[in-house]
């Protein structure tokens, strides 16, 4: 019992539980939406949410990574200024993005250019969604820096939990359509943000503590971090964007592709959890000049997460058909062989993710965000080129999925070259140290 309590209090486990619980509700909402919306409308919803996630990477790239990094080494009295600066910059970025959205929307309307509904939903409603979610998403920087993953879990569950309750009621009684679902999603985001503001977690009430010096430092670091996060988001989102532009595949193609992609996102939950705990730890060790500890954290996290993914990936590969059917529902039975093949390709991709992601985390933590940005740019360009060929030449979702494996291998190669040059981290040591960890089976090795 004491060992169980120790494990549950461990920060990596807290982070993982926070991600798993929110992902479980996210999966439920996804399954409810696939059954409540026609295939084309579900594709429009996926495009709207994917675009929103992509732009969130842009606006929070300016602030979250730099806020976490600065808060990790902050002394007493600096926290308010950092939180206030982060919120202020995030708000200004959102205002600029909102102006761009409405300018594009009215310009397209003036010239009579028609896009699929998902793009229209984004241009009209994302600025509102962005403002509604600014509070709780800003608060996550504080939670990550202070390793308060229980707070992160409660806030996230309050958000997505309310949305799931609505979807259950909608399926049983209301029968509302796509637009009403968008409105309710905005409302639940606003509720979570108001809560974070009242608890003084998001920095809105500390804007007056912000200083020009802190803002300049955040922007200086953030311009690279933003590029990295946008590029990373583009690696996942470019598939959806380009499929949506295809006159052949369109919204229906997005809906089909979203199902195996969602299953792949579930496999990435542990990875996101461990990167959230690894980043502030690497940053702290780097600020103290302990590069040997930075290398050790990099080796251990990269190898252990890969080893954890292996049995899960094998299981998913074998039972891919059943998992796709459960998630998508009966309306996707006709496309089951195609979606199963895509998901099996994605299971191979997930095994490559840990090393790729942790090379990026290491570069950011040693204050080399420009190198991480360079890596992501190479990967994003490769991804876009492959997607364009896959969609407009081969008109194949399978080729789109294969491209994901190709650009990830490219990212691993480039990332390992950078970390070897900067701190003499040797990729060969990753699994050597990980196997030592397995022999010890000691969770404290990740501290």
TrEMBL record:
It is found in: Cell membrane. This is Polysaccharide biosynthesis protein. The chain crosses the membrane at residues 12-33, 45-62, 89-111, 123-143, 155-175, 181-198, 298-324, 336-355, 376-394, 400-419. It is a multi-pass membrane protein. PANTHER family: O-ANTIGEN TRANSPORTER-RELATED (PTHR30250:SF11), PST FAMILY PREDICTED COLANIC ACID TRANSPORTER (PTHR30250). It comes from the Bacteria. GO terms for cellular component: plasma membrane.
